[in-house]
Amino acid sequence: MTSYPENLDRLVALVRERRRDQTMVALIIDSPWLPGYAGVKSLDFYFDPPTWLDVWKQAHHDLPSAVFVPGSWIELGMTAEPSGWGVPIQWSNQQPPGINHYPGGLEAVAAAPVPDPETDGLMPVILNQYERMRRPLADSGMVPRMAACRGPLAVAAHLIGVTEVLMATQLQPEVCQQLFQKTTDLCIAWLRAQLERMEQPVGVLVLDDLVGMMGPDDAQTFATPYLKRIFDAFPELIHFFHNDTPNDRVFPELAKIGMDVFNFSHQTDLAQARQLLGPDIVLMGNLPPLDLLVRGTPEQAREATAAQLARLDEVGPMLVSPGGGVSPGTPIENLQAVCDA
Fold first, then answer.
1. Is the peptide bond before 152 cis (omega within 30 degrees of 0)?
2. Strands (DSSP E) along 167-324, which ranges?
3. Residues 12 and 202 sit within 8 Å (Cβ to Cβ)
4. What rounded mean pLDDT belongs to the chain?
5. How far is CA 291 from CA 160, 242, 288, 322, 333, in A?
6. Which three-class secondary structure state does DSSP give residue 96?
7. CA–CA separation, 149 vs 206, rounded Å?
8. Is 175 helix (H, G, I), strand (E, B) or coil?
9. 71 dihedral zone (left: phi>0; alpha: psi -120 to 50; beta)
10. What pTM was estimated for this model as a whole?
11. What is the mean pLDDT of residues 201-206?
12. Hey, where are the domains in the chain?
């Protein structure tokens, strides 16, 4: 058994109470990092349940004091939501899968029906895997109690392209809004389907970097209403939001979406983030994921963490984390140094 249930309970208390005198390490870890860290092939990690379980056990063993957000999640790269629309996917043993764009572009996908997570794409496969792994995860003390989804703008970008989505907000705003309505519907249904497979869920994680590529006015028009609708659908749960695109001009707008915890880019200073977001949102960050955690030494990671802890009274409530997810190639020793500090 791991100490994860206790770590998760501590996380929930820290967030709900908005503690400014305590913190802990919280990490978003997924398939860009996990297979390389554990020395396994990506396809084995995705599709061989014993391998998947062993990798997660190793992560819990090596980082016993960290809490993982959303936990031992079953994710197939970025494929889950766009696969519901039937887009082609390329698989590799060395990296996460690639996603092709929807044939016909924006207007075609905006006119298509919203996928059903119970029947469409890879989502039923993931849901079935949650059911199959329930007992092994419980026996290992790693039961996931958070659901996760890519946000509505990110899903749209996977379907038609980042540039195409951003251009469409200016050239075809009504069609773009139609697509965002549907991707939002899917996000809510997908989160709900995952939560139905979990006992005593505590939170939802939404990951959407595309809003960081907008200005404040466009974020208000094309992002805030949809992100807020997702979080409003789960009023009893803790709301985690990830957007590590370095653009703090949209922070005041993001403060309105109902997030409790915000994982953001290390390029925004903690004090600046606190000023822009207000006093209550829990900051999840923001150690440099590449220059420090991939390329630095354990001692550098330890010193940077200590420097961040010294600012807790100033910038809390706060969870210590990379300014984004754990990047591919991050040495486990550097993460352990963060936890040690």
1. no
2. 203-207, 238-243, 261-264, 282-287, 318-322
3. yes
4. 96
5. 32, 20, 6, 11, 15
6. coil
7. 5
8. helix
9. left
10. 0.97
11. 98
12. 4-340
Q: How many CB atoms lie within 10 A of CB 177?
A: 17
Tokens of 201: 């869920």
* Of 127, 44, 128, nearest in space to 91 by CA: 44
The fold of the 4-340 domain, in CATH, is: TIM Barrel (3.20.20)
Q: How far apart are CA 160 and CA 84, in angstroms?
A: 14
Beta-ladder partners of 25: 320
Measure the CA–CA gap between 62 and 306, rounded to whole angstroms.
20
Contact 164, 158 (CB under 8 A): no
DSSP 25-58: BEE---TTTHHHHHT--HHHHHH-HHHHHHHHHH
Q: Which residues contact 297 (CB under 8 A, 6 or more apart)?
A: 334
Using CB atoms within 10 Å of the CB of residue 10, give its burial: 0 to 12 exposed, 13 to 18 middle, 19+ buried: middle
Rg (CA), the chain: 19
For residue 53, name the pLDDT band (cuts at 50, 70, 90).
Answer: very high
The pLDDT tens digits of the residues spanning 93-126 come to 999 999 999 999 999 999 999 999 999 999 999 9
What's the pLDDT at 3? 86
Q: Which stretch of DSSP H or E encloses residue 182?
A: helix 173-195
**What is the rounded distance in angstroms from the CA atom of residue 31 to the CA atom of residue 321?**
17
Measured CA to CA, the distance from residue 341 to residue 335 in angstroms comes to 10
Give, in order, the Cα–Cα distances in Å from 261 to each of 111, 194, 203.
34, 20, 10
